[in-house]
What we know:
14 strands; 6 helices; alpha/beta; two-stranded antiparallel sheet; about 300 residues; globular; disordered N terminus; single chain; 10-stranded mixed β-sheet
Amino acid sequence: MHQRTRTTIWGAFVPLVVACGGYPELPTQAEPCAEWKQPGLYEFEVDHDGKTRKALVYVPRTEGPRDLVVALHGGSSSADDFREVSRFDLLAASDNTVTIFPQGRKALFWRVWNAGDCCGNIDEEHRDSDDVGYLDKLVTQISPQVCGDRVVGVGFSNGGMMAARWGCEGTTPDAIVSAAGPLLRNQCVGDPIPFRHYHGLSDSIVPFEGGDAPRGRNTWPPSIKGVEMYKERNQCTDDAAEEFRFGAMTCQRYQCEASTELCTIEAWQHAWPGGKNAGRLESNATTEVIDFLNDHVAPSEAPAPATTERE
């Protein structure tokens, strides 16, 4: 298990908010691996695919290198909504992570991700939006600015679908965690990559077994289909999976070159299984995402953090 020392700096969680009610631009620090001088919540913009795309970025006061948690909101939600529900930024200091909340493209009344058959093709303007390229570019540009190290992509619902696709087609994630968002693509190739999928067995919006969405907008594949594709990519054997139970949650870990896991939750509906909702479970997907990264992806041999003189 790879585990860094966690430094608790709860007092650092004070978002910097400008007078207009928005967030300031992510600053350039002369020594990005040194202690971050102004911890807080920032806005970051990337020009990609003919559009200016935005993300919220929370940087703690800690020294680098810092891991990157790229957290993708669900359809009809937003970066700020998922920040409040998931609460990844509340753990940024103790886990020494930079939390990035990208914003999906607005289509009609929705903010969505092009995860395949859903949902970036909701109208002609957004058809075939290159969200994989956007996420890779976002990470590539932010990482040196914040002394980034490992990258875990995580998402819920349409964001979970997008995270699963990003893991199959992207170049920057080191691990993927999806929740209530099955893989919608028919191919997932490349080197083995740690993958975990959460799904509530009472989810009527994106049913675990697949089927029609409410009002017939989409037909979902069974979640096990995407898990099986990751199992093939991760060179899993036919040996029986290890099984772990945490109250209503049952997790199966398959025997693979890279950890591949499926966690199902009895009586759980369409909700992120952690953060603000953690009190309803005996586990917390928000904290487990960081543990999953630490357990299955070794830190890079990054240079020692820069230091600054103190009076």
